[in-house]
Amino acid sequence: MDFTQVINHRRSVRKYDSNKPIDPKIVKQCIEQATLAPNSSNMQLWEFYHVTSSDKLKKLSNYCFDQSASETALQMVVVVVRKDLWRKRAKANLDYINKVAGRKDPKDYNRREKFASTYYNKLIPITYFDFLGIFGWFKYIVYWIIGLFRPIYRQGRKSDMRVVAHKSAGLAAQTFMLSMVNAGYDTCPMEGIDTLRIKKLLNLPFGAEINMVIACGIRIPDGIFGERFRIPFNQVYKSI
Questions:
Q1: Structure pTM?
Q2: Which burial class, exposed, middle or buried, applies to 42 when counting CB atoms under 10 A from its CB (0-12, 13-18, 19+)?
Q3: How far apart are CA 110 and CA 114, in angstroms?
């Protein structure tokens, strides 16, 4: 399929054919392609849990309230936001900059390398660090005051950075689902879930957050609930 066909073919499929297995290796490849999705500051604050065991699938389906998509799914992928790993991911970016630059001493960096180094050494910690929400509100107020005089980034609170991290995870999830279509498979993203029980099932740390659970399989005819409905394009498209 070309890209337009992929876009049109992707649907939230809610029933899958139990007689048509899907290859976990191909699903893994689609997850790997999902990691190429654009994300804020290249922080990649995500993890993907590929669930294939029947026991875990049964429990996960129950925590998805036994929706038809989860009940019939042959595999599932849990997209997890790891904002708590921001220090490690910032360091990984710094290590990559050092590797590409081929110079260990930042004094020898060119202009672009110096900017990137400063970005991950100073700006990212200022952006992501918080303490009980207090520092976040302080940043928020300071940004708004500065914003009275010039354009400035205004998302300084802990809740703002959660939104940023979840947006990036959502971009990766969409990339995964489109990749699955190209592989001949179908998916259904689910947000009606018990996130606490899923965290316990996956043995996730306190700071991890569930973004969504994606059911995977091959559709059957009644797995699509009617024609796709969208608000008329002229109501959502604004040319300025």
A1: 0.94
A2: middle
A3: 6
If you ran DSSP here, which 8-state letter would residue 139 be given? Answer: H
pLDDT, tens digit, 9 for 90 and up, residues 176-200: 999 999 999 999 999 999 999 999 9
Please spell the DSSP secondary structure of 75-100, one letter per residue: EEEEEEE-GGGHHHHHHHHHHHHHHH
Q: What are the φ/ψ torsions at residue 83 (nearest 5 degrees)?
A: -60, -25
- Hey, what CATH topology would domain 15-82+172-222 get? NADH Oxidase (3.40.109)
Cβ atoms of residues 81 and 172 within 8 Å:
no
- Nearest Cα to 48, choosing from 65, 62, 61, 33? 33
Tens digit of each residue's pLDDT (9 = 90 or more) over 94-120: 999 888 877 667 777 888 888 898 999
Selection from 190, 211, 194 nearest residue 45 by Cα: 211
For the cut 80, the answer to whether the pLDDT of residue 228 exceeds it is: yes
In 3-state terms, what secondary structure has residue 187?
Answer: strand
List the chain domain ranges.
Answer: 15-82+172-222, 86-159
